[in-house]
Design brief:
With about 500 residues, this protein is an all-alpha fold. It has 40 helices and no strands. α2 runs antiparallel to α3 (about 45-60). The longest helix is centred in the N-terminal third of the chain and has 16 residues, at about 5-20. The chain starts with a helix and ends with a helix. The relative contact order is 0.03. Residues about 1-5 and about 25-30 have low confidence and may be disordered.
Amino acid sequence: MPDKGAAHDAEVVSKLLERMNTLNLHEHTQHVTYSKDVARLLENPKLVMRTVAAVTLGRMGEQGAAHAAEVAKLLLDENYEVRSCAAKVLGRMGVQGAAYAGEVAQLLRDENNEVRSCAAEVLGRMGVQGAAYAGEVAQLLLDENYEVRSCAAEVLVRMVEQGAAPAAEVAKLLRDEDKIVRSCAAKVLGRMGEQGAAYAAEVAQLLRDENNEVRSCAAKVLGWMGKQGAAYAAEVAQLLRDENNEVRRCAAKVLGWMGKQGAAYAAEVAKLLLDENNEVRRCAAEVLGRMDEQGAAPAAEVAQLLLDENNEVRSCAAKVLGCMGKRGAAYAGEVAQLLCDDDKEVRSCAAEALGCMGKRGAAYAGEVAQLLRDEDKEVRRCAAKVLGWMDMQGAAPAAEVAQLLCDWDKEVRCYAAEALRRMGKRGAAYAGEVAQLLRDGDKEVRSCAAEALGCMGKQGAAHAGEVAQLLRDEDKEVRRCAAEVLKRIGEQGAAY
């Protein structure tokens, strides 16, 4: 005789498998029809049936959550996948599932790595009920498995929102024998806001850790801890002389985060501008640019890096000087020499830096204009843009910029039109050349040309007829742009 019960179970599972991706959580009446049959399958001897039943109940909303007690029994299942599945399902069951937080917490000591991680994640989703087991989750920071430790750290941070994460317990792990645990504990404290910042002193002790990764991590965490962390700027500054490249780089970066307290060590950071490692030199230059807001960055030392053998360091030094106001502008001549650099990125950075240096940078507009004929389109584009900035100082050579209106690269043509637009009367003298771009094959160039003419006063308005032709352009954005420009032009535009 066939087993009618087994046949019925198989039929139910078959239906569930077909419907799992189509179940609507708001179709309560359909769920009620299935929930009891589904719950009965939680005791089925077959793994797939128990698993599918649990997952399906988890997707049935209130009707499924009514069977949370039955699902919780699977937390003791002999199969680790079923145990994990049961925990996840309880995590989706809201208040009814969270009532079993204690049972889920027991899985934190499960022999299987995935089950332990899963249990921690689920507790992190259970609100106050799950956060009550933050102490037990913290123990996983000592777990033999890296994935479990990482998961525990993330969950503890989430539990801070519930006010239950035990900062004191986490702080104890700063002295753990495992370097990963020490680093992980520091990171968790760094993300706990005021609760974690209260242990800044303990984290600062790790700045003398034997492991370079731990030292770097401790410095970063202090950088996250606001005033409490910045109080240890002196200790972080000692790492600027660390034997490890990454530690030195990290220390400089963190001091840059620490405001006035960090800026007090600008001179020490400046010494890294001569570091043997190019990444450290570049980072030091960037940090000094940030410290300039505090008036502490030594421009002379940064300027020395304009001659560095590394392309990225030279570029960075130029950018930093461009951000230093008058003190950086004093080195405009040295920056201008990089306009002839072999590296295209360095040439572009030098041009942009000069564009930020006011009158002193604008004095080199002629040299920047030479980049309009550069072999690299990005450099030509940058030069056109910078010359547009320099026109505020009355120094940009409009004739050279106008030549770029015929460049083969569409973006360069756009930048040239935009630069002429910014040049006032001198740029408007080339309104006729700009108007030729109204017939350009690229829609963006046509729009740029129209915009430029709209800002060129009478000279631009003289081409209102050509702009009006764009009202019939195939591209709607070009048509819109033309309509706006004609409104701006005034009487000549009103005629259309």
